[in-house]
């Protein structure tokens, strides 16, 4: 009988280290080993074998596994980020930039952004990308909560304000001004405030910061801040707040991009513009430096172009 050691090696019975790392990264990005196998066109047993061989090689568990779920370990997370960078760098060696085409664009791009930007600015451009590049899977997660992009496996983030993580590669694409707005009907009932003291005597909306559970302060020039004393409307959703302001329930401090369409058509007007705060930056960022997959670069550049070109990020309201 011929020894099994002399039999030709196949993908089913022998994997090199690079193949093992590719399978491991796919497993880390999938809900379970079976899903990873389907996405790679291999059997679940090959995925399991690759993971076990890597665990033996590193002497560390890569996944916590039970009958209900598979969850990556802390060591596995660190290895995944290093492996992804190494594999991308290796792939780039074999990609001639002069021959990159749509066929090379495939895989998942994970994006996190505030819900306020999604429908008007992000979804249209992302849907165009999805139609042109059907092999790219776009995973858009909407939240006002600031999370760790590396821990959450995010490829691209969009945020308004400040980025505290120096690991991020960020582009400031616009400035977001803030306007104190009200409906003409509300101003007819209560009058337009001319000072901050007068403002706090009027009905004001209040936004709950989902990161802290506290009310967001209103910001004004020279670093002044104030909060509604007796808010007429409280919510943790910026779009619900805008609806309350439009319906004449309260004055609200809205980001320019949320207010501009309504300022243009007259359904909102601004007050206290001479006390407007300095605008905040709107960032598109990537969570870490290093090689960037073509699919991520494509989406990143498209989002930068779209947000940079919008007329809804002025520094002053229309006159």
TrEMBL record:
One Pfam family hit: HTH_1
Protein name: LysR family transcriptional regulator
Residue spans crossing the bilayer: none
Top-level taxon of origin: Bacteria
Keywords: DNA-binding, Transcription, Transcription regulation
Domain (HTH lysR-type) ranges: 16-73
Organism of this sequence: Herbaspirillum hiltneri N3
Family recorded in the similarity comment: Belongs to the LysR transcriptional regulatory family.
């Amino acid at each position: 009988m011929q020894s099994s050691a002399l039999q030709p090696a196949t993908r089913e019975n022998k994997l090199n280290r690079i193949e093992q790392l590719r399978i491991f990264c796919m497993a880390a990005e999938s809900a379970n080993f079976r899903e990873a196998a389907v996405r790679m066109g291999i059997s679940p047993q090959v995925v399991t074998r690759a993971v076990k061989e890597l665990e033996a090689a590193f002497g560390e568990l890569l996944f916590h596994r039970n009958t209900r779920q598979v969850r990556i370990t802390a060591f596995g997370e660190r290895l995944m980020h290093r492996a992804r960078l190494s594999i991308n760098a290796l792939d780039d060696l074999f990609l001639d930039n002069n021959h990159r085409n749509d066929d090379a664009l495939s895989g998942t791009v994970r994006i996190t952004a505030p819900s306020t930007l999604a429908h008007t600015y992000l979804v249209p451009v992302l849907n165009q990308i999805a139609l042109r590049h059907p092999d790219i899977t776009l995973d858009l997660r909407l939240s006002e909560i600031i999370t760790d992009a590396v821990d959450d496996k995010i490829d691209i983030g969009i945020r308004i304000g400040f980025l505290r993580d120096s690991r991020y590669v960020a582009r400031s694409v616009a400035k977001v001004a803030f306007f104190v707005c009200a409906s003409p009907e509300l101003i007819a009932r209560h009058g337009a405030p001319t000072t901050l003291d007068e403002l706090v005597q009027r009905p004001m909306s209040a936004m709950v910061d989902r990161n802290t559970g506290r009310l967001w302060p209103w910001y004004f020039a020279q670093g002044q801040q104030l909060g509604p004393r007796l808010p007429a409307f409280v919510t943790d959703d910026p779009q619900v707040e805008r609806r309350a302001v439009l319906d004449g329930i309260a004055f609200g401090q809205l980001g320019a991009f949320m207010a501009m369409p309504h300022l243009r058509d007259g359904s909102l007007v601004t007050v206290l513009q001479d006390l407007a705060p300095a605008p905040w930056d709107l960032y598109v960022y990537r969570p870490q430096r290093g090689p960037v997959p073509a699919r991520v670069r494509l989406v990143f550049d498209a989002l930068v172009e779209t947000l940079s070109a919008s007329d809804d990020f002025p520094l002053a309201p229309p006159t």
